[in-house]
Amino acid sequence: MADATLIDTWCPASLPGTSVFDIAPSGDAGVLPYRVFVYTPSGEASETGWPVLYMVDGNAVFATAIDAVRAQASYPKGTNVTHGMVVAIGYPTDAAYDPLRRSWDLSPPPGRAYPPFHMGGPDVRTGGGEDFLRFIEDALKPMLEARFPIDRGRQTLFGHSFGGLFALYALFRRPAAFRTWVAASPAIYWEDTVIARSRDALSGDDWRDFKGRVLLSAGEYETAELAPFQRRAPDAESRRTHLSKVRTVETAREWADEINVLAGRVDAATFERFAGENHMSVLPVAVNRAVQATFVAQTEEP
Question: Mean pLDDT, to the nearest integer, of 185-207?
């Protein structure tokens, strides 16, 4: 082994252009803070401002998105990706997820109560999606827009799993809030498909006025066909039963078709099935798709 000289001491690493802050909604002292991760490119924004990719489950996806932007935006002629901002909303934890809080924040009302995740823990509550959406739209967005040059016409919301469910809920509640909606492996089945109530409550006029696009996706192995490494596992049969019940691939595809019908446009929604991926391994692939959809360098020729 060759000798080497340690130039400096070990120290924490940080991603260039990133910052982080904690913020709590005003008016309720009992509301816990969110941790917001922000990436801003170097240089000057265009006259219209930076496009922005908003992401939920920020602790788990922020670094993946930043690397995807930085690598591809440095070569726009080869990637068709340009620079922009990333805003990832998470929680004050070093873990990838806060299961208790995301269960509340990312699920549509009215919600239910479930047993604790672990012995002695609090009950798990769902149904806080409207509160979370209000925080994003009425508190977080205005604060960021007062600080950064932001293109309000080029904003994306990304979510995966429960986050994908939230992205759909936000779409149906405030269809003009974002230009692009990315729902990866959305938990549409959740609580007897309660999300369908929000979809069906959106008026025909709202759908006719909808100019955005919806990207739904799922991994190849989010069906009853298990991933190869799972097929001989002791819980293989229970996994097949669960996947057959939730039908992530089939339902996401069906909902893409349904949105196209409601919006009266064949390009309002698309579905993509990612080969070789399961419910969790699909995450970085879906994040990259969100990056590519948000930071488009130039439109295709007609």
Answer: 96
SS (H, E, C) the chain: CCCCCCCCCCCCCCCCCEEEEEECCCCCCCCCCEEEEEECCCCCCCCCCEEEEEEECHHHHHHHHHHHHHHHHCCHHHHCECCCEEEEEECCCCCCCCHHHHHHHCCCCCCCEECCCCCCCCCEECCCHHHHHHHHHHHHHHHHHHHCCEEEEEEEEEEECHHHHHHHHHHHHCCCCCCEEEEECCCCCHHHHCHHHHHHHCCHHHHHHCCCEEEEEEECCCCCCCCHHHCCCCCHHHHHHHHHHHCHHHHHHHHHHHHHHHHCCCCCEEEEEECCCCCCCCHHHHHHHHHHHHCECCCCCC
pLDDT, tens digit, 9 for 90 and up, residues 77-135: 999 999 999 999 999 999 999 999 999 999 999 999 999 999 989 999 999 999 999 99
Percent of the chain with pLDDT over 70: 97
**What local confidence, expressed as pLDDT, does residue 1 receive?**
56
Residues carrying an active site annotation? 161, 222, 279
Domains in the chain, please, with CATH? 18-294 (3.40.50.1820)
CA distance 156 to 291: 9
Per-residue pLDDT at 299: 64
